[in-house]
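Hi U.,

Before I forget, here's the chain from the pilot set. I'm dumping it here mostly so it's searchable later in email.
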Amino acid sequence: MISEEAGEMLMVYDDPSNQQSLSLDDGSSTEESHDDTRLSLETNTDTVPYIGQRFATHDAAYQFYSEFAKRCGFSIRRHRTEGKDGIGKGLTRRYFVCHRAGSTPAKAANEGKQQRNRKSSRCGCQAYIRISKSSELGAFEWRVTGFANHHNHELLEPNQVRFLPAYRSISEADKSRILMFAKTRISVQQMMRLLELEKCVEPGYLPFTEKDVRNLLQSFRKIDSEDESIDLLRICRNIKDKEPDFKFEYLLDSNNRLENIAWSYASSIESYDVFGDAVVFDTTHRLTAIDMPLGIWIGVNNYGTPCFFGCVILREENLRSLSWALKAFLGFMNGKAPQTMLTDQNMCLKEAMAAEMPSTKHALCMWMIVAKFPSWFNAVLGDRYNDWKEEFHRLYNLESIEDFELGWRDMVTSFGLHANRHIANLYALRSLWALPYLRSHFFAGMMAIGHSKSINAFIQRFLIAQTRLPHFVEQVAVDFKDQAAEQQIMQQNLQNINLKTGAPMESHAASVLTPYAFSKLQEQLVLAAHYASFQMEDGFLVRHHTKLEGGRKVYWMPREGIISCSCHQFEFSGILCRHTLRVLSTGNCFQIPERYLPVRWRRVTGTPPSKLVQDPQRNHSENVQMLRNMVSSLISESGKSKERLEIATEGVSMLLSRIREQPVSSTDGNAIQRNV
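Structure:
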């Protein structure tokens, strides 16, 4: 209940001796129906404005009203000033209004310039305070002569009001820290995390946002973009002269200035041909040196390591630019679209994909969404944040859409999130991120939140050494071909694979799959031993031996060599699940059917290595790298038994003798010395 005194303070106050209509907009009225307004509840009379309240300056009055507004859940702005009778007597009256007062006038359309479709927050709110200048005993002061505290919109909670622009600010000390961080070339997200740690605040509780930091950095940059563009095109053309199979596309604006540019390498296009079934298009990074959006296309190879497919730099991250980027990427890859593509929660990109890649299944990167949770929910949920996050991940990993829908409703009710806009948006987009909706599509394991670490580390190799825009392009050209990922592949090849079940299927898979893919299959083989299978009329029912109900439905046609499971793990990851492996085992199957050992997970991909080495279009350094990989596989296979090692030693000795008989040119010799 509101006290009578407090209730009176919530009404519209006006000094009869100083009547003046408010009219925040033409045709607006100070009269508001109490049925469709919101009241700022503040019962402390010392902090609520009142008629006759006095201030030494109008700035002091503004500060007082601003502090009152913040406690109530809104912010204010200066609206109108008036002079005595409007005739050169100086400033005598001021109005401060709610930040949602008035309406935004429509901008005149300009055909030559793309309009930004931003929704205004103004809704004609009539809350205001009016102060008038008066003098007593020769001293000037400002007195409150009008006050209305009715709002026609929802007021924000204390943990939300701080995000209003009026209450966001970057102190001089923080500005210095941010500029120092910028010199180290770390991302804005990393800057925010460091500042949170330094100030010992929870994620999302800094008095400014990532956008504020980007605006600050942009204000300090003085880079001649035209010179950058000229250098960038020159670099790309130089690479094209050295590597004819290097591909790049660019777009110039009406002033002949570079607007967008995208590129890819011959080896990237070749990798995409085998591993381009699932792609991540990461547009969450920016080039810190010039604050331009950066997009990188990445996949995962048969050893589970990220592989680079292409890169794009955009002037603006809008629908037109993103559509152009996707068209350029398809052009690089000879029109071959991926089966699935993972992106950030970007509505422009969603529209662009629907138009340019209609056959590709679009999904959202879960790790990119989870990274935003602290700023979205930490302040809202408080101590219950970790409990909510645990429940969210449980729902995310469910298999049944029905279970997800029921669980989501219970979660929203349990945590009181019915009015939360982020929860509403997540639910509206659930078919793009929730696993129950995506398990029938192939993602090569990239939906796993843990996979983000390797992808982010891969991207940071390009970003960490960036200085200016053309240097970044050169950095990508060098870095993505370096030895880090290749050394990891060689180490994996040299691993001694330990068989855990003794099943013939296990040894068969170990001889075909890469260590990465085999480890995933081996996990399922070990778990399969804990499951029981029951033959039904239309297939098999498989469930854990401790369960009396439930289970997965497996369909097996031995003659056709076809098997499938209701959990859809093979469709999702390319690795057979424990349920199908259990049925194969009980059906006396000693080898995994050929079709369930995908080429993309095998030690040798679809193109024979001998053909790749002899390919005249492949440059010398790539041939050397191919030879490295073959030698690595040779060592891995030979070390499995004494007999194999003897055969390999004898064969390599003969091969070396033949190689030494061949002439060596000085150019080739130097190339080998540089690359081996």
